[in-house]
Amino acid sequence: MNYALAERGIRGTGSALAKSFLGWGRASTPVPGAVAVSSRRGGGHVAIVSRVESGQVYVWNPSPRGRGWQEVAYRHRAISYRVPG
Fold it and tell me: Helix, strand, or coil here: 55?
């Protein structure tokens, strides 16, 4: 996530831990460009919100084997949505 933000000129957390984004920026609703932070066994997960449609949040996630990014429906329960702040 830090790399993706840096490509866009946005400073991240500098940590490889997904949950480090809980202290980054400011809390938000799920809006395009926000970082979605969720918990999962053994750590966390982060993704970039692409759109919200009929209450469903869609995010950009890295695709398998480093083939770029793919838009998917976000199936994780977000702890927080964060925007630069």
Answer: coil
